[in-house]
Design goal:
globular, 3 domains, three-stranded antiparallel beta sheet, 11 helices, 3 strands, mainly alpha, about 200 residues
Length: about 200
Amino acid sequence: MPGREILSAAGVKGGQAPKHQWTEEERSIIRSDYKGTNASAKEIADAFVERGIMVTRHAIKGQVAKLGIMRQKSPPWTPGELERLEKLIHRHSVPQVAKKLHRSPNAVKIKATRLKLDLRLRFDWYTKKDVCEIVGEDHHKVQKWIDSGELKATWHNDRQPSTKGYGAWHIEAKDLKKFIIKHSGELLGRNVDIQQIVWLLTKID
């Protein structure tokens, strides 16, 4: 399929076909094969084209950006950052620590793992927001699990949670562990906090 026809089939600018609808399998290939270079993006695109999936190098780079796997080299950790990491990682979620340290969540996970720091949240309980970050779902989905009783949760300090930010849901680590084991097949996607889930499954009775 020459020049213009490939562009058309790929649904890129100037073509007539609808944009390609990416599958999770295709995104997984990009995650595993992208090496942070234009050359690897082209190799992935060429491999897809051989399979009849008409996408371009630019389309691959677009997915790379959405998946957050640009793989830019992070600056070295300073002694001050390491000290803050050690203090914060036991009390806050990885995304929260990343925001405080102005690092990516992945960089925080890797450094904490290398330093053999337990990735804990508070003292064996989580808020709904924490659970959203761990399972990679929005608050609507997690609230449905709570309302249906699938995820056991209570009001923290007997104060009803509200949309104005008053009160919080209190979810015991053991109850979240039970939920994750029962619903493991539903926890998919790049936003799942694997480190926290592993900690729950291996450290909580």
